[in-house]
Structures are given as structure tokens and as C-alpha cells.
Amino acid sequence: MSVIKWQSLVEAAKKGYQRAYAPYSKFHVGAAAQTVNNEILNGCNVENASYGLTVCAERNCIAQVVVSGEQKINALVVYTEQEKLTPPCGACRQVIAEFMAQDAPVKAVNHLNNEKTWTVAQLLPDAFTPKDLL
Ligand code: THU
Prior knowledge:
Bound molecules: tetrahydrodeoxyuridine
Strand order of the largest sheet: 2-1-3-4-5
CATH topology: Cytidine Deaminase, domain 2
Order of helices and strands: HEEHEHEEH
Number of strands: 5
Shape: globular
Radius of gyration: 14 Å
Number of helices: 4
Largest sheet: 5 strands, mixed
CATH superfamily: Cytidine Deaminase, domain 2
Strand content: 15-25%
CATH architecture: 3-Layer(aba) Sandwich
Number of domains: 1
Distance between the termini: 25 Å
Structural class: alpha+beta
């Protein structure tokens, strides 16, 4: 596995954060992913007047990875400016498990530089993944 560029990931996640479209919750989230080819893509949450159509930063970030032509992610950062670090929601955990290995790291970071890291398996043990369809 290649070296994870945590600092670049946090910077990219912050840029995503600045672009968040969250007029309803006012809860801005940025995310950034490092692909197996060491590309870094980011995303932000995008809300909707029909609230349930909101898409989280993590899933928009992963969509950017796929649009860029990549499908494997080595590391993911979630950035917010919340004192309590923001973990990925349940829906995002499922999507993360589709594109990241079970031992790959997901890190929550905030503006105070607090951080917490989980493996994908810690976030979603015994995930249903493409392997289960074989
Ligand atoms: N949100 C994310 O983008 N990622 C998370 O990990 C948690 C929640 C968004 C969805 C919604 O726009 C706002 O945060 C409040 O739930």
C-alpha cells in the first residue's frame, strides 16, 4: 500500500467543506479520498429543499473518484468544524465499504486538529460487499 498523504487529504477535505451546500442544516462537511493511484478527490454535502435528497460529503467525494476513472480508495478524510468529530453516517459507511478495503483508514478531523481514525471494518463490521454477490 502506498504512503497516505494525510496533510493533502485534510487540505482537500477543507476545500470541500468550503463548498458545502447546506442551507437547511447549516452543517458543513468536506471529504477527501486518496485513490490507489495516489490521486486526491474531494466532495462536500449537497442538501435539497426536499430534505431527504441530501447527499453527504463522503458519498459525493466517492462519486468524484468514480467519475475521475478510479474505483479503489486507500484513505478517506471527513472534515467538519464541530468540536465533536463527525463520523460517517450509516449510508456512507455502506458506500465506503464498496470502494475501500476492510483495513483501510477513515479519519475524522476538525478545525482544532482533533482527529479520530477508524478502519472500514470498525465502521461497518461484516459489511455486505460485492464479494457477497459472487
Ligand atoms: N453529513 C455529511 O455530509 N456527512 C456525514 O458524515 C454526516 C452528515 C451531512 C448531511 C447533511 O447535509 C448534514 O450533514 C446534516 O446531517
